[in-house]
Amino acid sequence: MTATGPDARAALVRLVRDEGRRVLATLARLTGDLPLAEDAVQDAAVRALEIWPRDGVPAEPRAWLTLTARRRAIDILRREAARAGK
Questions:
Q1: CA gap 75, 40 in Å, rounded
Q2: What is the Cα–Cα distance from 17 to 76, expressed in whole angstroms?
Q3: Do 22 and 69 form a contact (C-beta atoms < 8 A)?
Q4: d(Cα 22, Cα 5) in Å, to the nearest integer?
Q5: Runs of H (alpha helix) within the chain
Q6: Are 62 and 21 in contact (CB under 8 A)?
Q7: DSSP 3-state of 31
Q8: Are the CB atoms for 72 and 29 separated by under 8 Å?
Q9: Residue 66: Cβ within 10 Å count
Q10: Alpha-carbon torsion, ordered 51, 54, 60, 62, to 10 deg
Q11: What is the Cα–Cα distance from 7 to 85, expressed in whole angstroms?
Q12: In terms of CB atoms within 10 Å, which end of the chain has fewer, N or C?
């Protein structure tokens, strides 16, 4: 882990600016649903804003953001599937 505090926020801004489209494309490909992918990436960015200033920027920030967004998308899909079954 590297930067903490304001440096972590700046790192996230750079990551989203430079790699955000790639992360979004990966999620859209995995889920087949662009609005879901957008929501998941946004939620992952918010989570990074909460965690990175405290714990530091991970060694592979793009991978962290992609994995966190993927997990969020899975959570959303599971919630919607459970809702449909009720």
A1: 9
A2: 25
A3: no
A4: 25
A5: 6-31, 34-55, 61-85
A6: no
A7: helix
A8: no
A9: 21
A10: 40
A11: 45
A12: C
* Token pair recorded at residue 25: 């494309």
- What's the predicted TM-score (pTM) here? 0.86
The per-residue pLDDT for 30 is 94
pLDDT digits (tens, 9 = 90+) for 14-55: 999 999 999 999 999 999 999 999 999 999 999 999 999 999
pLDDT at 4: 67
In the numeric block, the tokens 């998308």 are attached to 73
User: 76 pLDDT exceeds 80?
Assistant: yes
For residue 38, the tally of other CB atoms under 10 A from its CB is 14
